[in-house]
Design brief:
The protein has about 500 residues and is mainly alpha-helical. It has a domain of about 350 residues. The chain contains 18 helices and four strands.
Length: about 500
């Protein structure tokens, strides 16, 4: 009997692992864990309980504890830690903990350290539990519905912060943070539309309109730049017909914003292009606020320079998690005698470098870089394979692109949406890897597979799948499949 080739061995190994993963995903406990995880993501993103009369019941905390036990019951977090994204983000979290005892103000750092640990655990739970495309869609759906509810809350519980939309309390009390949070969730609504019927497509596209109306009313200039980056990436990865549609929708959106937005918000957005933009049509209060906005741009540049300077003053451990605003105030007080207000760096990258030193900055950059790299490579692989997963990869690519631009103008180093997007990136990469393996298995002649018994493996170390390369994940390796043997044949040589 002819011994199966290395490629056939590898394909069979993937096939058996895929079937095992499908069986695990279909178990009642797994379905419960996935749906509970989607509900928890919804609570995190929407912050719906911040303004609820039952906020004191700590529902998210109770769900979080149940999810921990559910994740441990599914086999611990060994599989989650095999992802490079999880490892680097884990190193970042560990370094935040290391920096805590050396913080210039430990009591101020304590809450940020606890938050970092919590969100790293959330990342591990998502990467560990999500195994199939359907699992991923449930979790991403929780994000999409959370963004929609937050946007609707912007109409119901809105308050004006210097003429800009924000919620009356809670995490979304800052218009800039509110705008970025709902922006990076919009692509997940489009992913829902891609999998829906005709009525569903119309519904989710209308939901997207609600999100962008709330986004525009927030008046975030950093959010507008993040949106511009998202649109640019969307234009690059689209075909000719989609690009034409994007241009039409973009023109309609610009005309609608110029027509419907209040004069102050229009003038505020135009300060991105011309700080001396005309404000003659505004009332006195709006003109004064616009002048304050222009001055704030100079203040942010000064804070950026101060955070970079502080990074090189404290290159190893930084000044402590969440302590930049107080350390910067002390520094200004010592230099000029007037510290002024306590202001954050308004830049996540320099916030991390100044508060956790260059090691923390390296671990964070490695995490987000790998997320972007995996998402882009997954999208390309799925487009070449003409797979429906390309829509999921595309939505995540747009969200990550907006995030990486948006956090340049916000201090959100220890926030939930960074951990959520990293977790979605790592878990989708695992799903795509399994899908590519399934397609490779489908190309292997069935007769060859029938000749390859369970003891016929000659464990390949790496499996060349075009540009989508990577090690065989442990959850796809059946018993007896090692890691050291080389691939014997390429598929075109078999």
């Amino acid at each position: 009997m002819k011994r199966p080739s290395g490629w056939q061995n590898a394909s069979l190994a993937y096939g058996q692992g895929t079937q095992a993963a499908a069986n695990d995903a279909s178990s009642p406990s797994s379905k419960f864990g996935i749906r509970l995880l989607g509900f928890y993501v919804f609570l995190l993103v929407s912050r719906v309980l911040d303004l609820s009369p039952i906020w004191w019941m700590h529902v998210p905390l109770a769900v979080f504890v149940v999810l921990i036990f559910t994740t441990l019951a599914s086999g611990g977090v060994k599989f989650a830690l095999e992802s490079k994204i999880s490892r680097y983000f884990g190193l970042f979290t560990l370094w935040v903990i290391v920096c805590y005892p050396f913080s210039l103000w430990r009591s101020a750092s304590q809450g940020w350290v606890i938050g970092s640990i919590e969100f790293f655990v959330v990342l591990l739970m998502i990467v560990q539990v999500v195994r199939t495309a359907e699992d991923w869609r449930i979790v991403a759906g929780g994000y999409a519905y959370g963004v929609l509810v937050a946007a609707v809350y912007g109409f119901v519980f809105a308050r004006s912060v210097d003429g800009r939309l924000a919620l009356v309390g809670g995490t979304f009390g800052d218009p800039n943070g509110f705008a970025l949070s709902i922006l990076i969730g919009a692509p997940f609504l489009w992913a829902k539309a891609a999998y829906a019927n005709a009525f569903g497509k119309i519904f989710f596209l209308c939901c997207s309109a609600v999100v962008f109306i709330s986004f525009a009313k927030a008046g975030s200039r950093g959010g507008l730049l993040a949106l511009s980056g998202m649109v640019l990436v969307m234009f690059i990865v689209s075909n000719a017909k989609q690009r034409l549609l994007l241009c039409v929708v973009g023109c309609v959106g610009v005309v609608a914003a110029a027509t419907l937005l209040p004069g102050y918000l229009r003038a505020r957005y135009f300060t991105i292009f011309s700080p001396a933009s005309s404000s003659s049509s505004l009332d006195l209060s709006s003109r004064e606020q616009l002048e304050s906005d222009i001055l704030s741009s100079g203040e942010r540049r000064a804070l950026l320079e101060q955070s970079i300077h502080m990074t090189f003053e404290h290159p190893i451990l930084g000044v402590g998690p969440g302590v930049f605003a107080f350390a910067a105030w002390d520094e200004r007080k010592a230099e000029s005698g007037a510290g002024g207000p306590t202001l954050v760096s308004h830049n996540t990258y320099t916030q991390i470098s100044s508060e956790t030193g260059l090691p923390g900055f390296f671990f964070f950059i490695a995490s987000v870089f790998l997320c972007l790299k995996y998402t882009l490579s997954d999208y390309r692989a799925m487009v070449r394979a003409r797979c429906k997963l390309a829509e999921l990869s595309r939505s995540l690519l747009l969200a990550v692109s907006a995030l990486l631009i948006g956090i340049f103008f916000l201090s959100t180093a220890y926030s939930h949406f960074i951990a959520l997007l990293l977790a979605l990136g790592a878990s989708l990469h695992n799903v795509v890897t399994r899908e590519i393996a399934s397609q490779a298995l489908a190309r292997v002649p069935s007769a060859s597979l029938s000749q390859a018994g369970a003891g016929a493996f000659q464990a390949p170390k790496r499996l060349d799948l075009g540009r989508a390369r990577g090690r065989v994940p442990s959850y796809l390796r059946p018993r007896g499949l090692g890691k050291s043997a080389a691939v014997q044949e390429r598929p075109d040589e078999a």
